[in-house]
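User: Could you write out the 3D structure of this protein bound to pyridoxal-5'-phosphate? I've included everything you need below.
Assistant: Certainly. Input first, then the structure.
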Amino acid sequence: MSHLAMAGGPATVPQQFRQLPWPVVTASEEQALTRVLASGKFTSMSYKEQEVPALEHEWAAQVQTSYCAAVSSGTAALTLSLAAAGIGPGDEVLVPALSFIATATAPFQQMAIPVFVDIDPFTFNIDPEQLEQHITERTRAILPVHLHGLPADMDKILAIAHKFQLLVIEDAAQAHGATYKQKQVGSLGDIAAFSLNVSKNLPTCGEGGLITTDNEELYQNVLMLRQFGERIEEGKERSYISHQIGWNHKLNSLQAAFARSQLTHFPAYEAIRQQNVPRFLASLADLPAIICPYVASDRTHAWHILRLRLDPRRLDIDTVSPRSFRLAVQRALRAEGVAVTEYQKISLPAQPIFQEETHKGSIYPWELPGLPAYHYHKEDYPQTNTVLDDSFTIQRVHLHPHSATLLEYYTEAFHKVFSHLDTLVHLAHTLDEQAGTGILKQAR
Ligand SMILES: *Cc1c(COP(=O)(O)O)cnc(C)c1O
């Protein structure tokens, strides 16, 4: 048995396989950009600009919604969705405790209050069973995230939304193409936000976002708000008259053209991922300490991020904390060349903006007159904290259509690492001692 790379042995994953670029740039992306450069039409405001409306049309067709609006980022898509829906000062928005920061700051930008809800530890999505207990007379919307590409429990979420007359705003930034009961994410709630950031499953060459909805009024509001609050009338000259507090959140033509080109590859890349990723996860089935993502049969996973939980107790090891065990495995895997990372080092409520109650002159929504004092306690989200402790993630590398070979090396690396269990436990012990988190120590 060869030594762990961490202990000076040979690394499993060859250097040349470690960097798989994402996005994949082919001749079709180059042609798309050249086409825009030659046209001289760089923004959606250019006379007869075609790329932005074409992308909107194509994405609405993919998601099966009546409307799609292209915007400057996924964060802008969230902000505009909330603003278009009239979410305003003091309104409460239910948000999962585990997500990217933009999910929590979007309500903030509207002077609304993000109210965090713990996650389900197997789907990593907002736990629908815990929604009702957080609803107050100020609650206006639920903002479920299809985290890592797995659709949230939409039937339960929509039933609660219906009962309490709440809006449902999907954060689909990580879940392009994922389906729930045969319907595309982005068509399940009132309005939805997608990201086109370079890191996502449908990337552009930089920043971008897409909003989808079947609601014409919300759509018209989005169009106004993404352009300075102006009324946009098709075929009419721009008025330069503002009716609402809008932003400049438009997508530019180069990024629209690049995203359109990616969209032509999207079904093929997606189909390859649907083979590669489940095959990789199945190859870990004989390692009982690893808990792979759970996908209910009524939905499909876009496999944007792979999160693996570790439970040493499944190997009858109860002398080290799950966190230190996970850190030990992570360190060993990284040395073998497996790109394991931590997606979100801390929960959303643990972020300094919610913990440090010194705002240095900024206006924070919970300082609005008439509102109760909001305080965020990171301990209030035990499932989120458990998952952050005992799991790591694999990001980006598996999105590349040629990642099958890389994932085979990953399988080999995982098996090699787990064949050195004693070393892992020893390292975990040391980490526990350093952190003062040892199980034995706690028991004393
Ligand atoms: C990436 C992401 C966003 C923000 O998208 P940007 O395009 O980076 O602004 C929002 N929510 C989630 C869950 C994301 O992963």
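The chain is about 35% helix and 10% strand.
User: Perfect, thank you.
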